């Protein structure tokens, strides 16, 4: 059966050249980089190269830190809990955190936990297109605000948020600024020397690196308390033997992705637009967000009268991988939380399908996806009495 992978916001395939680069570190180059013998020492230049790739890709100034974590969820927990321990516990008069209402659960659930422990949180709503403007964030600031945490691009809608503007507002007011850039690497230009970001989260498997490795950029002077005690790795900040092969894979994957930024915004965008234009011709569909403000690979479409999960199953039978939204919420069959936050029509939240391409997606795959998607909608609508009834009534 033909298989087409259109769930690249959930995870991506490993770039073949990244796999080749990682291989020796599972075989002959297996030393612990903290060891003082040859086995340890011979690994270090490769680690330095990988870290250099990440600093270059993000244009991060040299004195700043990039901490290696196991995933973006860990990076997000680290920054929020670190700020709570370092700043809010020390000075409870500055206990206010601002985030958008559509952050990833690793932000939202950590904030709920911090709220139970004395932090005050404002969740800023998005508008009907899934966007939130800088003025809306600014109007939530109080003299108690210590941190603004705002994702760079939303994982479900692909909407790109005004990070540069908000980062400058935060800097001017002396407020810490964190961005979850998981869905932005390789899709939008990131320049940490120009945009005053204090903390930035990323995860290798979203840009064709391996799963189980991520990072947190920390600006010089904005250090957080130690996360894992018990060793000198990561400057003592996160003890534990480094995951050498994966760090090397992540470094090259980030270099490759950022190197393909133009391709993402030309070739991948053209494929996405062709798919979107074809799906928009299907009656009773809503595509969320102006595509000029979305990452070039993402479509979130709502199909009136069709349950998202039913559509997923039909697509899956045709070999197409899509999702109803965030993969980590897929085991609970509730409404798509981002669609709920966008509001208006409650049916939207149950009928959303996310399609996300990558630089490995081909034109033939898009042709096949258009055909299979259209066929699935026709089939499901033909058996849905609710849809038939609503249509007759109109
Ligand atoms: N979003 C999705 O289907 P991890 O799995 O920890 O490396 O990444 C978590 C994460 C954090 N922030 C954003 C914006 C994300 O999109 C994700 C992962 C996947 O949308 C899986 S839930």
Provide key terms for this protein:
Aspartate Aminotransferase, domain 1; seven-stranded mixed sheet; three-stranded antiparallel sheet; 394 residues; single chain; Aspartate Aminotransferase, domain 2; 39% helix; binds ligand C6P; 2 domains; alpha/beta; 12 strands
Please characterize this protein's 3D structure.
The structure is a single chain. With 394 residues, the protein is an alpha/beta fold. The chain has 2 domains: 4-11 and 261-393, Alpha-Beta Complex (Aspartate Aminotransferase, domain 1); 16-259, Type I PLP-dependent aspartate aminotransferase-like (Major domain) (Aspartate Aminotransferase, domain 2). It is 39% helix and 13% strand. It contains 13 helices and 12 strands. The protein has helices spanning 16-22, 38-41, 44-58, 72-88, 105-116, 134-138, 163-173, 244-259, 261-280, 308-317, 337-342, 363-383, 385-393, and strands at residues 4-5, 65-69, 96-100, 120-124, 145-149, 176-180, 199-203, 214-218, 285-287, 298-303, 320-321, 352-356. The strands form 3 sheets. A 7-stranded mixed β-sheet has the order 2-8-7-6-5-3-4, with helices on both faces. β3 (96-100), α5 and β4 form a beta-alpha-beta unit. α3 (44-58) runs parallel beside α8 (244-259), α4 packs parallel to α5 and α9 runs parallel beside α12. The chain is globular and about 65 Å long. The model has no long low-confidence stretch (mean pLDDT 93). Ligand C6P binds next to α4. The site of ligand C6P has 17 residues, from α4.
